[in-house]
Specification:
single chain; mainly alpha; two-stranded antiparallel ribbon; 7 helices
């Protein structure tokens, strides 16, 4: 079951990567040109960082090169997964194999995007890097809060809510 979940996630991430590759550096922020990328957690990496025109141009150049170098999303793999999902008889082994294949392709795309983001990070001044680190820490703190809320059982939430109301 984990592999099937991974396959679904890989498909979603593959679509997100299309959006990431289409990102354009404009103004002081990265603004994705595709709505899918807006749901991805890394699409606003440079929010709040005031970039010089030279930095923006260097980042545009890096993104253009990344778009050129990155292989296109393999639509046939997604179609193959869809056929497996909608097949009359579910073949777990075939789905698992397809999911693993798609996950490996997604890993390659993520590594390439991470490489580009690393290059972009080192175009920043130390002050800009410090701001970026601070904003990253804030996002991680928010995610930890959400994760803690998700880990709490609904019964615990309702029990503590009713206890607080009765006091």
């Amino acid at each position: 079951m984990r592999i099937v979940t991974a396959a679904v996630m890989a498909s979603t991430l593959a679509l997100s990567t299309i959006g990431q590759a289409a990102e354009v550096v404009t103004g002081d922020n990265w603004h994705p040109t595709d709505g899918i990328a807006q749901r991805n957690g890394q699409n606003h990496m440079f929010d709040g960082i005031h970039l010089t025109e030279h930095q923006r141009q260097q980042m545009r150049d890096l993104m253009q090169q990344a778009r050129h170098d990155q292989p296109p999303v393999n639509v046939s793999e997604m179609e193959a997964m869809h056929r497996l999902i909608t097949a009359e008889n579910f073949d777990e082994t075939a789905v698992r194999n397809q999911a693993e294949k798609m996950a490996q392709e997604q890993i390659m795309r993520q590594v390439e995007m991470a490489k580009v983001r690393n290059q972009m990070y080192y175009l920043l001044t130390p002050e800009q890097q410090a701001v970026l680190k601070q904003k990253h820490q804030q996002r991680m703190d928010q995610l930890r809060e959400v994760a803690q809320m998700q880990q709490g059982s609904p019964m615990t939430f309702f029990s503590s809510s009713s206890t607080q109301r009765s006091q």
